[in-house]
Every structure is written in structure tokens, then in C-alpha cells.
UniProtKB/TrEMBL annotation:
<dbReference type="InterPro" id="IPR006439">
    <property type="entry name" value="HAD-SF_hydro_IA"/>
</dbReference>
<dbReference type="InterPro" id="IPR006328">
    <property type="entry name" value="2-HAD"/>
</dbReference>
<keyword id="KW-0378">Hydrolase</keyword>
<dbReference type="InterPro" id="IPR036412">
    <property type="entry name" value="HAD-like_sf"/>
</dbReference>
<protein>
    <submittedName>
        <fullName>2-haloacid dehalogenase</fullName>
        <ecNumber>3.8.1.2</ecNumber>
    </submittedName>
</protein>
<dbReference type="GO" id="GO:0018784">
    <property type="term" value="F:(S)-2-haloacid dehalogenase activity"/>
</dbReference>
<dbReference type="Pfam" id="PF00702">
    <property type="entry name" value="Hydrolase"/>
</dbReference>
<dbReference type="InterPro" id="IPR051540">
    <property type="entry name" value="S-2-haloacid_dehalogenase"/>
</dbReference>
<dbReference type="InterPro" id="IPR023214">
    <property type="entry name" value="HAD_sf"/>
</dbReference>
Length: 238
């Protein structure tokens, strides 16, 4: 980590608790549209399960790069149909507001303090599959102190494509080894390391709920392993 000048962060799951935030929005939306019997957390999980397949269409070249807000909206309509919600009862404004639940996610409790300490020493930016407006709105609402808003729209690539990592370093004018990805997902870190980035793992054992069975521990010898962003700051002498 001695050469690292910038920390870039996976966002969904690592920085913010997407599941609780999306379920909260669904709990407000569903009852008035015949979905009072539905579990908002189960619907949130179903929406999230469509995330990787939708991006894979772009990664595989079967579809041009399409920003995440558009993919989320398409997936939302499919998920609502799957759960018996009558889309004819929903206005465009209703669906747009619900789709922007991803803009209104809350950070984990350790995030703001940890980032404020890390920012004293490092350049901080998201390295997310989210688009710029989504990430900027999220940061403004929650007070997340990014130095820049990057992500898939800037790199025109979805993780774990190599370009998602190397182009992030290029945008910052740094060599890959001068950039460290911070993530709660071992697979994301493996792809970043393969692209030449440094790696830091911070576990989020309830990202997928209380029965989560993946990414509970660091599975590889990452450059840094921490229990929280505050712990990460301490380990990086911030």
C-alpha cells in the first residue's frame, strides 16, 4: 500500500446498505398497488438478482453500454410483473421515483467517519457500476465526501471488466498500483488485483440479510483487511 495515492470504492454493499434502502422504498410503494402481501425485502432481492444479468448483456457486447438507471428501470418493471403488480396502476412518476430508491441509499454506520479520516491522506472516489447522477445524488443526500464521482459511466465498462479498473486509474492519471479498490466482495477484488490495483477488503456480513453466506471473510491475502472503514483508516495511519 506504500505507493497508493487513491482509494476507490465499490458502493452497493460496501459503502451503502442497498437492501434496506430499496426495501424501504418498496414498503411505501407496494401496499397501494395490490402488493400489501408482498415482503419488500424479498422483492428487493429479486430486483437485485437481475442486476448482473442485465449488465452482462453490455459486457458481452450484445447491447451497447447502457447506464445503470436504465437497466434498473427495465428490471423494476419485470420484477413488479413477476410479483403480480399491475403496472397499469402505476404512473411514470411513481415508477421513476421508486427506481430512484437506488439514489437514496444510506451508508453503513462507519462510513462517514471512516471516509473523513481516509480523505486526509488519500484521493477518494467511487468505482461503482452506478451512473454519475445516481452516485452524486446518493453522496449529496448522505454526505459522502468523494473527491470525484467516477464509475461505470466514466469508464464505459461494468465491473469485473478489466477496463472498469484500468480506466479508473487512467482518469486519475495514476498507474494501477497507485490505486486501491476497497470492496466487500472478494470477486471484485480479484478482478481489480488482476488489473494491477491494490486491494482492501471490508466485510459487510449482512449486505444480503441475516442469512448471508458469501463474502463473510477475506478469501485471499488482500493488501489490507479491515472490519470497518474506521478500522481501515487506522490501519492506513489516517
Amino acid at each position: 500500500m506504500k505507493d497508493v495515492q487513491a482509494l476507490v470504492f465499490d458502493v452497493f454493499g460496501t459503502v451503502v446498505d442497498w437492501r434496506s434502502g430499496v426495501a424501504r422504498a418498496l414498503a411505501e410503494f407496494l401496499p397501494a398497488r395490490g402488493g400489501a402481501h408482498l415482503d419488500p425485502f424479498a422483492v428487493a432481492d429479486a430486483w437485485r438478482r437481475r442486476y448482473q444479468p442485465a449488465m452482462e448483456e453490455c459486457r458481452a457486447g450484445r447491447r451497447p453500454f447502457t447506464r445503470l438507471d436504465v437497466l434498473h428501470r427495465e428490471n423494476l418493471e419485470l420484477v413488479l410483473k413477476d410479483h403480480g403488480v399491475d403496472l397499469a396502476s402505476c404512473t411514470e412518476a411513481d415508477l421513476d421515483h421508486l427506481n430512484r430508491a437506488w439514489h437514496r441509499l444510506d451508508p453503513w454506520p462507519d462510513v462517514l467517519l471512516g471516509l473523513s479520516r481516509l480523505r486526509r491522506k488519500y484521493f477518494l472516489a467511487p468505482a461503482s457500476n452506478g451512473n454519475i447522477l445516481l452516485l452524486a445524488n446518493m453522496a449529496k443526500r448522505a454526505g459522502i465526501p468523494w473527491d470525484a464521482v467516477l464509475g461505470a459511466e466514466a469508464t464505459q465498462a461494468y465491473k469485473p471488466q478489466r477496463e472498469a479498473y484500468t480506466r479508473t486509474a487512467e482518469i486519475l492519471g495514476l498507474a494501477p498500483h497507485q490505486v486501491c479498490l476497497v470492496a466487500a466482495h472478494n470477486g471484485d477484488l480479484r478482478a481489480a488485483r488482476k488489473a494491477g490495483l491494490a486491494s482492501a477488503f471490508v466485510a459487510r456480513p449482512t449486505e444480503h440479510g441475516p442469512a448471508q453466506g458469501t463474502d463473510l471473510v477475506a478469501e485471499d491475502p488482500w493488501d489490507c483487511v479491515a472490519e470497518s472503514f474506521v478500522d481501515l483508516a487506522a490501519k492506513l495511519d489516517c
